[in-house]
Design brief:
About 75% of the residues lie in helices and about 15% in strands. By secondary structure, it is of the alpha+beta class. The radius of gyration is 35 Å and the shape is rod-shaped.
Length: about 200
């Protein structure tokens, strides 16, 4: 515990600090809960995203296994080019995080009469797959930013709960005991002085 002055001014200062800490602590605890909920939500969206990608990969694998020839995978992926990813920034529990909006693609032209009938579906699945990967990266960035803020907030909650509030309470207790002892001693000295002055007058 830091050195404190045993004065009424210090007592007021410590009481004010305690009041401030106890006022801010519930806000920090609420923020911590919100961040934990948002991180769980991010994890659920990542799980859902991964399931969708696994499903699309499964469909592509089955088409390529049935109808594909050597170089089919390279040819298909060469038909779909990601131009740009559009995202927005939202404030989530006091943290600015990126949010996926859409992805813009350029699909290379191919001859429908020369290609297999399933190629349209395969190209669409590849487009969705690339979009889902881009979205997953943005959700992972959300998770990282929220995780960093959660660590900082948790440290602050712990600092208030385990250090600052107990220190302020202990300082108040020590100052009150000291001031009480000084008051008792002053009353005792006053009684002794009064008694001596009465004896001297008699």
């Amino acid at each position: 515990m830091p050195k404190i002055k045993l004065t009424k001014t210090e007592l007021k200062k410590q009481r004010d600090m305690l009041k401030q800490f106890t006022r801010f602590l519930p806000t920090l605890q609420l923020k911590k809960q919100q961040l934990q909920m948002e991180m769980r939500s991010c994890q659920a969206r990542l799980d859902k995203n991964r399931e969708a990608r696994d499903d699309l990969n499964g469909q592509l694998d089955s088409w390529i296994a049935l109808f594909g020839t050597e170089g089919t995978v390279e040819k298909l992926t060469g038909l779909v080019n990601l131009n740009k990813i559009e995202m927005e920034w939202h404030n989530v529990a006091g943290v600015e995080v990126p949010v996926f909006v859409s992805a813009d693609f350029e699909i290379s032209a191919y001859d429908l009469f020369l290609e297999d009938a399933w190629i349209d579906d395969a190209v669409e699945n590849i487009r969705k797959l690339i979009e889902l990967r881009a979205e997953a990266e943005i959700i992972q960035e959300q998770y990282r930013l929220l995780g960093h803020e959660l660590r900082v907030t948790t440290q602050r909650v712990n600092l208030f709960e385990k250090v600052k509030i107990p220190e302020a309470k202990e300082s108040i207790r020590v100052i009150q005991i000291y001031l009480g002892d000084m008051e008792t001693a002053a009353v005792g000295r006053s009684k002794i002085a009064k008694k001596k002055s009465q004896e001297a007058a008699a």
